[in-house]
Amino acid sequence: MKVSMKVNGIERGGDVEPRVLLVDFLRTNLRQTGTHIGCDTTSCGACTVLLDGQPVKSCTLLAVQVQGRSITTVEGLAQGATLSPMQAGFHEEHGLQCGFCTPGMMLVGTALLERIPNPTEDEIRWAISGNICRCTGYMNIVKAIQHAAKAKAAAPAVVGAAAGGE
Amino acid sequence: MYPAAFDYRSIASLDEALALLAEHGDAAKVMAGGQSLIPLLKLRFAQPSLVVDIGRMKGMTGVGPHDGWLTIGALTRHVDLERARDLPRQLSLLSEAAHWIADPLVRNQGTIGGSVCHADPSGDWGSVVLALDADLVARSSKGERIIHAADFFQGPFTTALRPDEILTEIRVAASSKPAAGAYNKLERKVGDFATVAVAVQIELEGGKVSKAGIGLTAVGPTNVKATAAEKALVGHEPTDAVIAEAARLAAAAAEPKDDIRGSAEFKKDVVRVYVQRGLKTALARAKEARA
Question: What ipTM was reported for this prediction?
């Protein structure tokens, strides 16, 4: 079955069986391996992508289900060599240890700041409640998202202005 | 984990979907958001030859008044109910329950209709539609019929819906009296299925309870309607003693099992406490609605 979608702003397509999961389409067909497979049971959030800007679990979506829609993966966050404010926040605040959950955490954080530019700690913790960090590094993940919120507030018009830190 | 092979159709109109179901019967499976069906396909608990994707169909979303009813489109996503700021107060139970469903990512994709039709006895919406005494509107190529929530859940993952029918709408009789609900859920960790959850809804008239609904989650082969407890409330002033008796009857109606989430005895007692707690919250909210 033919399928096409925008992935990180670029029109991509393929010919897949209807049963192919979105995460496998991204990783295997498109060779975009930043989207991880963790639990494969809708529990961990390692496979998080943004579907038309909303975080969803790509292990629980069929590739054909997102025909014609827009997907953002972690590969779409940086602008060239410049980290996005969320990526810079994770860098600055040591928001990752093993890094396996990080793509999902950064995408959820990015979508959160689009909806709530200045979230409370409680709002951040609820937003990441579908994403599991098995290093249990949640303290620094929360700080990283707060860092990104501050950076975006300071330079809202310039994408990636916080890259490289203070 | 990979689903067995199936054919897939993404459908733009209800009539087209109903025609496919009429043709394929129970070899076809309807998918809305896919947040229950895709896990079942991956585990191969379900192996339909055709998946009919209605998730992108227009016109079956949102909450609104219609001819004396408050209607909820079957394709309304959990997140839209969770964040709805303009819900009629009578339906505030919807946003409270939505907040406790799975996790934010699942809520972005899953729908109320899909979840109700999935009929997991640990699902949250089943108890909500039981507490609201909702009517479920089912359409097939032959026409439309109404299934009362109390008749809908027939067993684990089994409903009164026929294979050629699609749930299009959930509706609740609009009330001009003070009415409110509450949802209380115990989970081991955020995002887990309920250890126990309780939905309650009450309506007041002249200081007495004129309607009461109580739905129990994860304590039986289906979501459980605590009918005896509801009857113990209606026509009475909701005193502490009346509430305590209703809570006792609701706990007696629960049939939980011992499992990793807790013992049956513990779960029954959580039902009792949550019915009591939910009724007190709902009462306060209903009185606020009157003010």
Answer: 0.95
